[in-house]
Amino acid sequence: MTCLNGHSKVSDLVSLDMQRLNNRAFEILHQELNKCSTNDSLGQAELEIVLNRLEQMRSQTGSAASLQELREEIVDLFPHFSENTLQEAARANQAPGLWSTIKWTAILVTSATGVIWVLNLPYPMIRWPVAKTAPIILLPSYMSMNYHYRQAIAIVEQADQLVNQATSAADFGLGSNKAKQAQKHLDALPVWFLGYWPKYTFWLGWKFTLDEYKHARTTIGRMEAQLFQENNAQTQLTQAEQALKKAKKQYQQAQTTTQREQAIISWQSSIDELEQVPQATLAGKTATIKLPAYKRDFQQVASLAAAKEFASQARKATQAKPQTAIQWQQIANLWQHAINQVQQIPLQDPSYLEAQRLLAQYQSNLETVLAKQRIFLNPRTANLIAAAKSFAWEAAKAAQNPPHPTAKWKQIEDFWKQAIEKLERVSPEDSGYTQAQKLLASYKANLGQIKLRYQAEADATKALEQAQKQIEGLLTSTPTEANSVNRNLTISKLHNIINQLEKVKNGTSAYPQAQQLLLAADKKLKQLQAQ
Fold it and tell me: Whole-model pTM?
């Protein structure tokens, strides 16, 4: 079967809806007729008759000839004509089907889409002439801009809420994802277009300016930096807590004094790391909440361990058979230190019963040592030293669990002064003079520390009061209507308040309240600066 040339194909397409028998079908039948006919005169006559019939059908217009019609025109003279050829010719004679229509429609749609895609490319030299002459062609770009703009604004707000109002680490994770999504939508916005139309309104009814774009970019950048800080702080918190739990487990499993001491050192180091977590982060706030419980647990364990260590040293010193009042005083000090540590263990602690048993034992040992010490002291010196120790004991007991208000620090300071006054009355001729001088040096050092704590508490209280007055003044002078607020003046006053609150040092009773006010002032300052 031969193929038709290009001219025949074109003729087929042109005359497809007019001829009852098209050229392609005629050629298929003609070739088969040539095979079926004989070379004698009869065979050639029959061939000529059938070809005339087919030519007549070619010249007719109307519906395409069916398979049965083709068969009737041929098989009366060529009864053995190929049925497959008839079917092939009938198929070739049919008008184009649905698939052909779909194919050509798809080609046209694809071509049109390609042209529109080219005209919507983000190149000013293409878009500018189109925008002036046929802006409707740029509708796909406008719809895309509208979509990315609305998505960027909405997701930036969501990310900002999650990051700045986070209640857990999961909020930061979701906020990070939202920030990345917003960044993608911002990257898709046509910032280059603003160079031609700095401010324009699309048919879809929204306005987009360069300032809005910069503000969104700045917000995303700030949140990314904040998320970086939060992630670092969260990592620091997690590592410190894991180290703390590990040290606690090591202490519980320790078999020797050395192992317990190493575990306690690791434990204390972990608590120090927790205190270094930035307070302005969510992880820092979490650490601040957990630290009192961690410190309480550590203090209880460390107190019992320290008490046993002091007791062990006191026993070793006693076994050396001391012969002077000073030596006995050193042993008494060790027992007193052991007692002080045991007394810090609270009732709810699991080791409380053991601590009470040790307390009774240590107090009995201390009384024995003090009785032996009196043998080497005259009554007057012994009474002065005993009175000084009583005041020192009251001072040490009152100073436990700081911070304290200034009034209590003043009371503690008076206790140390009275203890020092008693020791200063011991004469150089007395046998306990050397012991009194050693105690005097220790008590004066303690008094100096108390004075520093007293002054720090006084300064912190004063700074907090001044900050509170500034806050009250700011609240009173701030208009109720947001549009009337003097933004620069408010920012300046907030800076002054923050500077004042930062003067409140850690370890004072005013510090927790100052930190709360500092966080609130810092947050308000960031909001104003972001506007």
Answer: 0.36
